[in-house]
Write a structure and sequence with these properties.
This protein has 496 residues and is of the alpha/beta class. It folds into three domains: 199 residues, Spore Coat Polysaccharide Biosynthesis Protein SpsA, Chain A, CATH 3.90.550.10; 114 residues, no CATH class; 165 residues, HAD superfamily/HAD-like (Rossmann fold, 3-Layer(aba) Sandwich), CATH 3.40.50. The chain is 42% helix and 15% strand. The strands form two sheets. An eight-stranded mixed beta sheet has the order 3-2-1-4-7-6-8-5, with helices on both faces. A five-stranded parallel beta sheet has the order 11-10-9-12-13, with helices on both faces. β10, α14 and β11 form a beta-alpha-beta unit. α10 packs antiparallel against α11 and α11 crosses α12. InterPro entries: Glyco_trans_2-like, HAD-like_sf, HAD-SF_hydro_IA, HAD-SF_hydro_IIIA, HAD_sf, Heptose_bisP_phosphatase, Histidinol-phos, Nucleotide-diphossugar_trans. It is found in: Cytoplasm. One of its GO terms (biological process) is carbohydrate metabolic process. This is D,D-heptose 1,7-bisphosphate phosphatase.
Length: 496
């Protein structure tokens, strides 16, 4: 079973990664197929993951795209049927591999994922701080990717993690709800990890209020009952709104020359802030540092929580469900990737259009597979040979990088084959070769036959017209882009 599992660990290079890798290296028994470390730092020294006992390790880089993008790159880079996500600040139990194998073995097809169990150690010699109590809530949270294994097919079906969630907050709940919306189930396994409380400064509780905007996004995407489905508590946002309103009312009434009313509003603000502060102070250690921090942050949190919530209300108007990136982008060759020289059989005349290499590299960097689907009727006409076609394809590889699949049709327009575009044969063959649902495939080309082949195969077509593209074909294309960069940019933005 473990041979069908890839472990994906997104990391920003925290020292805690060493403890995770040490435990994975020391664990007894069989290993998974691969360990993929996703380096999500904008820059920095290369990771040093080499340790005897680890499974084969591969490091990929996002350039700093955030946790959702990092996890997406991780699972897209994997080749196995199961993806087990671990965060870089957890420590798996020594028997984690063997319990993971038991948790996944024999799961019915209707189960898309298995969550591990989390323990959060709290100090034994004193009461926990507010930050420590908040971290302890992870032990009872549902569907968090601190330790959660998903079928790769389930991730592909919903487009993976929604990259509009910029923080490590709610992106895992959103994914779980979308997966369950497909009719699949998520279950809890019996493997365990330890999630230590990370060191944090006194203002951490202020910074995390930015997550209120993500709660708005969750409501817009999943409806008003999303908290019940995701097992996510409402928290104190209504109280924060009321306290903030009292503060604003006090200022406004004072400015309007109504001192008694302003004093009453100010008293409501003081009472609300004091109640909030005491709720945070009472269960904690109550030492001077903690009390001071709670008093200061309790005054700041209500207005900041309200501010971030209002930002989310404005930002997420009309938001749609995440579609994610396609699993495969297929390109027409002549006129799309390279300048069109009819029936070209000379590799020296293979000349990429401006931006072709950059566009393909951008897709590869995000874990999207790329391929070519090309009509080569010059073979049937006796103008070029298949060897010449192969030589030109090889030259294209040298100029713009490797492709995951190359399909070309050597037939003429009257041969009645099912591969020559606008027939869907090459698109369906490329998807079948890579095990990809055509609905998760995009075809980019310069003429009507390209987008018609995409539609016939159940894929999405985007036309990038050239001066020789017929006007009626341009008008009939369901999606059009000015150039290759715009077409690929639309794909990378999830707007395909």
């Amino acid at each position: 079973m473990l041979a069908q599992v890839t472990v994906v660990v997104p990391t920003i290079g925290r020292p805690s990664l060493d403890a995770l890798l040490d435990e994975l290296a020391a664990a007894p028994g069989p290993r998974p197929a691969e360990l993929i470390l996703v380096d999500d730092r904008p820059a920095g020294q290369p990771l040093q993951p080499d340790r005897p006992g680890l499974p084969p390790v591969r490091v990929v880089r996002t350039g700093g795209g955030g946790p959702a993008r990092a996890r997406n790159l991780g699972w897209r880079s994997a080749r196995t049927g199961w993806i087990a996500f671990l965060d870089d600040d957890v420590v798996p139990d020594r028997d984690w591999y063997s319990r993971l194998e038991v948790d996944l073995a024999g799961l019915p097809a209707g189960v898309a994922g298995s969550q591990g169990r989390v323990r959060v150690p709290l100090p034994e010699h004193r009461r926990p701080t507010d930050w420590e109590r908040g971290t302890a809530g992870l032990a009872t949270s549902s569907w968090i990717t601190a330790d959660l294994a998903y079928r790769r097919a389930a991730l592909a079906a919903v487009g993976g993690f929604d990259e509009r969630f910029p923080r490590a907050f709610r992106e895992d709940s959103d994914l779980a709800l979308r997966v369950m919306d497909t009719g699949s189930r998520l279950v809890r396994g019996e493997r365990w990890i330890t999630h230590p409380v990370r060191p944090a400064d006194r203002w951490v509780s202020v910074r995390v209020q930015a997550g209120n905007a993500d709660d708005v996004l969750m409501r817009r995407l999943h409806g008003p009952d999303w908290r019940d489905r995701a097992d996510a508590a409402l928290g104190r946002r209504p109280q924060h709104t009321a306290v903030t309103a009292a503060a604003l009312a006090a200022v406004g009434l004072a400015a309007a020359g109504r001192p008694r009313a302003a004093l009453a509003a100010a008293a409501a603000w003081v009472a609300g802030t004091g109640e909030f502060a005491w709720r945070r102070i009472a269960p904690g250690p109550r030492d001077r540092a903690e009390v001071t921090t709670m008093l200061a942050t309790s005054a700041l949190i209500p207005p900041l929580a309200t501010w971030h919530w209002l930002k989310g209300v404005v930002r997420h108007v009309g938001v749609r469900r995440w579609r994610g990136l396609p699993d495969l982008v297929l390109f027409d060759r002549d006129g799309t990737l390279v300048h069109d020289y009819p029936y070209n059989g000379d590799p020296e005349w293979v000349r990429p259009v401006d931006g072709a290499r950059e566009a393909l590299d951008a897709l590869r960097a995000r874990g999207v597979k790329v391929g070519v689907v090309s009509n080569q009727s010059g073979v049937a006409r006796g103008l070029i040979t298949t060897d010449q076609v192969d030589a030109c394809m090889k030259r294209l590889d040298e100029l713009v990088g490797p492709f995951d699949t190359v399909q070309y049709c050597p037939h003429g327009p009257d041969d009645g084959c099912d591969c020559r575009k606008p027939a869907p044969g090459m698109v369906t063959a490329a998807c079948a070769e890579l095990g990809i649902d055509p609905a998760r495939c995009v075809v980019i080309g310069d003429i009507g036959a390209d987008v018609e082949a995409a539609a016939a195969a159940g894929a999405v077509g985007i036309m990038v017209p050239t001066p020789v593209t017929r006007r009626e074909e341009v008008e009939a294309a369901p999606q059009r882009a000015e150039d290759l960069a715009e077409a690929v940019g639309r794909v990378l933005a999830g707007a395909w």
